[in-house]
Amino acid sequence: MPRKMLIKNGLVVTLDGPRGDGEKLAILLEGPRIVAIDREIEAGDAEIVDASNMLVMPGFVDTHRHTWQTMLRGLASDWSLAQYAKGAHATFKHLYTPSDIYLGNLLGRIEALSSGITTMLDWSHGISSPEHADAAAQGLIDAPGRSVFGYSAHFGFPNNTPIDEDLRRLRETVFSRNDGLVTLALGLRGPQYTSIERTEADVRLARDLDLNVTVHGGSAGWGKNRPVGRMFERGLLDRRTTVVHCNTIGDDEIAMMGDCGCTASVSPFVEIQMGFGWPATGRLLARGIRPSLSIDTCTAVCGDMFRTMNTALIAQRGLDNEEKGSAPDQQGLDLRCRDVVEFATIEGARACGLDRRIGTLEVGKEADLIFLKMDDPTVFPVNYPLGMVAISGHPGLVDSVMVAGQFVKRGGHLIGVDLPRLQALGVDSRERLIARAKAQHDADLALALDGRWHPPTADYTAAAVTGRNTVSGRD
């Protein structure tokens, strides 16, 4: 018989529509699934989970994170986008061994899980061999969370290397099924980073393998070569396509996304910090696309969804307020706290193709839940639960996390994770990466991870990248 658990005494946010912005409800689980939600539930044979002083809600979904970069955390805190490309990619990426990418993915996934991100799409562009791909995938599998492995080719400019053989291998072996906790998608290089011919070949491959596609589009100056429009012209957009960022694509390209049923991923913190352009949240909403949210890279920004929601909310409200003019004359705010909480949950699930399984608390869905402390002094008293989550929330509130009906964090402690051992291995990995970088024949003598190093950017200007990517011919 499947294990039964009855969650009682908590304030519940279901996000299922007619109710659930915060009311006292009980939730009955049987195995991985929710089998009942009601004010009172009798289940004498169930394990009782007392959620007193807790807000119980769906786990967060991060739809775009370069998890392999975990060991470079904070490196790009003062860097532009071009410096990030030079520093994280050109300087360090080719130095990663399979062991390094495994540890980066495992520790990065554990970090996200601990802060309430129950599902994460790992946009894995640090892969330089089949061994690296296997190690990256295994890092996600060994973490106790739900993940999507967004396989992508090793980034470089130009980058037209075929990926058919390795992607097929992964699909036929490690990811032969779609119902596991870790599934496969294609991290498409796309017209920003490769030719349109290679883009088309890769999309056709993904469709043949029954995989979702996630692609950068509109990343600062790199995204001004109409990446979405060029894909649209070749019939390469559909409901299984997620466009990441969207800052500098045209309004007509956003309309194309809407017409094709595409989803979007907005990474507001990194987009503002690195100069991508203002987050496209409002422009997407205006055309009927409710975006998901993402972190992007912990080299530059924090890795939790609370500050990501808050940044998305405040950035768009600032843009809206500036357009409206005088504050005393405004009748209210357009973007609400509930909106960004939905972006961080059900819209993320939708972008990952998992909205029938997770993203809201509903009977029949799998139990991916987080328990947030409402008696923490930083949020007490909680009057408006969704406001607490979107405005005042932080990782310190995450008491417990459940994935598919199993606790992976409880009472503030991760379950089944030897964190001190993994962190020691992570430090060793970081030190080896630094040593390798300094040993290169063309090493930058100023290289350091403590904020003193600011890489040159000449090779990563928008003009240089776009020019190199289109040398093989435009459509």
UniProtKB/TrEMBL annotation:
Keywords, ordered alphabetically: Hydrolase
Cross-referenced InterPro entries: Amidohydro-rel, Metal-dep_hydrolase_composite, Metal_Hydrolase, MTA/SAH_deaminase
Taxonomy, superkingdom: Bacteria
Pfam families: Amidohydro_1 (PF01979)
Single annotated GO MF: hydrolase activity, acting on carbon-nitrogen (but not peptide) bonds
Entry keyword Hydrolase: yes
Family from the record: Belongs to the metallo-dependent hydrolases superfamily. ATZ/TRZ family.
Protein name per Swiss-Prot or TrEMBL: Amidohydrolase-related domain-containing protein
Organism: Sinorhizobium meliloti CCNWSX0020
